[in-house]
Structures are given as structure tokens and as C-alpha cells.
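User: Stability/partitioning determinant. Structure?
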Amino acid sequence: MTERASIFDDDLDLSAFTPKSKPKPDKEALRAVAEARGFPSREAVAAEPVAAEPVLQRRYRTGRNRQLNLKVTDEALRRFYALADAQGLVLGQVFEQAVEVLEAKLKAEGKL
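Assistant: Predicted structure:
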């Protein structure tokens, strides 16, 4: 064929053109070579579970609709929850009782 084929010809035969098939790589051989060369695997490593105290869901319908966010120490938080659990009270009740006790103390000292 000395001339270029026209793209507008209807009798253009392209059957001789077929895609080449690529050989499938041997995954185990590739893994062995990668490990020998020091390439790290991208597979996830299972993390060890962190031992933490279970947090109880404390949801009650008490009529309290205001939120108070506080930053406290771990020790103070642990003590606060221990007080609530020991008395069988919701957190809002423990807070209200603590405020009442502090107010009474300050009134007795003449500071309020």
C-alpha cells in the first residue's frame, strides 16, 4: 500500500488490528521481590484496641433544657460521675445539689 487510507472510505478493513494481551503478573513473585527490596506493604495492620472505661449513656427526660459545658480534669470528672452513680441521680441533679451546697456554705460564711 503506497497511499494512505482515507478515513472517509467505507471499505476500510481494520480486522488485522487487535489489542495485545498483557501477561498477568505473578503476585507472589512481586510480593517477594518487594519485601526483599524493603518496600512496605500497604495492607492495613490491625490496631490494638485501646482499653477504656465504658461510657454509660445518660439520657433522661428531666425538663432541663439548658446546656453547660465545662472543662474539667479527669479526676474531677471521675468523681462527679461516681457521685451521680452512687446516689442514682442524673447529672443535672448532682450539679444542682452541688450548687445548693456551695451557696449554703458561702451564705454561712457571709460571702454571699
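DSSP finds three helices and no strands in the chain. The mean pLDDT is 86.
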